[in-house]
Design goal:
single chain; about 350 residues; alpha/beta; Rossmann fold; 2 domains; ten-stranded mixed sheet; six-stranded parallel sheet; about 20% strand; globular
Amino acid sequence: MNILFINNAGFLRDNGSVFMTRTTGVFANQVEKQLNQKINFFQFVEDGQVSSGINDYQINNDQIKTVFFRKGNKKMFSYISVFLKILFFKHEAKLTYIFFPGNVSTLFAWKCFLFNKPYGLYIRGEYNKALSKPLIRKAKFVNTVGLVFKKDIDKINSNCHLIKPMVLYDFTKPLSHTFLKKRKEILFVGRIETDKGIWEILEAAKTLIKVLPDYQIRLIGSGNDASKVEDFIKQNNLNNVILHGPVYDPIKLKVFYLNATLFLFPSYHEGFPRVIYEALYFKLPVITTFVGNISGIMENKINCLKIETKSAQSIVKQVERLANDKSLQQELIKNGDLTLHQIFNSDIKSHSELFTSQFLSL
């Protein structure tokens, strides 16, 4: 075993086949081809249906070996089981590459730290926590997305590198067509959970149904609060809000982007969300909070409008402003195109290219 990946998202098992998220699966296969080495993953697995989750990339066992364990129903027992499996896992990899943060990822990073096993980190958040800093400091290298994260991580580990974001679409190619937007629609794509700002969207909808009666709000996603959100919509007669559910097929998701008018993302915390890149690519003016790495790429009144965290009033203000200002919409779209071009047409290496060079230099 030369390369061991510790993913920070679990796997899905459906009818005997194992699946992971598409971007991670594509990355692993690219590394396998570039290095001509089998890739090994360690993570928990849950039984389910491919159609109901983001894990839709089937793992080819000839290329990628998985070491997984079932996730228990009781949280405490699951953590004890994970700890024991990690502790006694036979660890012979030349390099362990850890997708960080995550519970399994953090535990495995500490094992590498304590037993002096070489490891690298792919960081998308939580690097400022006291228990994270020693792990970052000792890593052979750190890869991340966004200048804000890199600037902070550089202070802990100088061997930190930017990668091009792992995305579902080829943003270097121009759109082949655009749809005629017959409806006025505000689009949200993400988890239907509190920390994504979902309740602020619903509170804002109470006002927006009055001030912008011809606009709909479409929520694409699934999550712990989905049933509560559905009940809230019915109880408050929010006929302007549509809870669509998850859409994982990139071709089907594309249709919703192309038919939307505005993109809204009021999250409480993030790395840099892939969906903002997608909204820019599909020429949607973006309204977003400036959390995590978002402020390192997005600029208020340049390529987006900024909203305050946990503020329905801020959402109403900026949505109403943008809906009534066509020239501002076009200005944000134009600058959003420039932002994408600067990121995806730059000389920054892709994740697989950078990792391959780092592994070969060990």
